[in-house]
């Protein structure tokens, strides 16, 4: 067996961030061959990942990244809040975001197969699992594409616990960023009432009618009460109809229109939501 030098151990330790004891054992098993030792550590990382796979991942980070005419919002989960401040975990979130931007994959499984310095994104995740001893999962992501005349807005709140991504047709970057801040704060469900299914609209209308009748309102005015309450409800859940947080005299749609733009898309992620 070849003698493993301290310089070899240090070099592999610096490259992988794995514990010194584990690095030395890998080098000993590889007879001093650093490349083979790296393969051994990767296999160990995959095994560690398998043992952690059922652990709950209720914490994590959300991130937004843009490049040219593409933007992505990503959520990566871990077991503890402590890990969200870890530089290796933050680096993994950035690595995943950048890989998605560069390759435009369709699904989470596609992302895990993308190339990385460790082999694949899945290998990179296994590596961080190995050194942090926590289960880590890529929960979801959403890619948006714009034209040269469109604008992205991004906002990350509370250290990566909430993030929003907005796409505007026209307007400007500052307007898009302001709307992204609004989305993070007000948590709209839909872009406009047109995005609500007929089934959901009918259900909400029926519930409002039932509430009005149960409160003793005369039947002849119930339809007017329902109409008013439905308008208020839609103004709470639809981005276009919400009062803009920076100017409550305007709806969000009116604010964007005043900047010669139009709402096109939005995504909001929050750690802990279903």
Automatic annotation (TrEMBL):
Domain Translation elongation factor EFTs/EF1B dimerisation residues, every copy: 71-273
User: What is the superkingdom listed in this entry's lineage?
Assistant: Bacteria
Q: Which SUPFAM superfamilies match?
A: Elongation factor Ts (EF-Ts), dimerisation domain (SSF54713), UBA-like (SSF46934)
Q: Name one GO cellular component term.
A: cytoplasm
Q: Does the keyword Ion transport apply?
A: no
Keywords in alphabetical order, please. Answer: Cytoplasm, Elongation factor, Protein biosynthesis
Q: Name one GO molecular function term.
A: translation elongation factor activity
Record's keyword annotation contains Repeat: no
- Location within or outside the cell: Cytoplasm
Mind telling me which Gene3D superfamilies this protein's record contains?
A: 1.10.286.20, DNA helicase RuvA subunit, C-terminal domain (1.10.8.10), Elongation factor Ts, dimerisation domain (3.30.479.20)
Described function: Associates with the EF-Tu.GDP complex and induces the exchange of GDP to GTP. It remains bound to the aminoacyl-tRNA.EF-Tu.GTP complex up to the GTP hydrolysis stage on the ribosome.
State the family it belongs to.
Answer: Belongs to the EF-Ts family.
The molecule here is called Elongation factor Ts
Species in which this protein is naturally found: Acetilactobacillus jinshanensis
Q: Gene name?
A: tsf
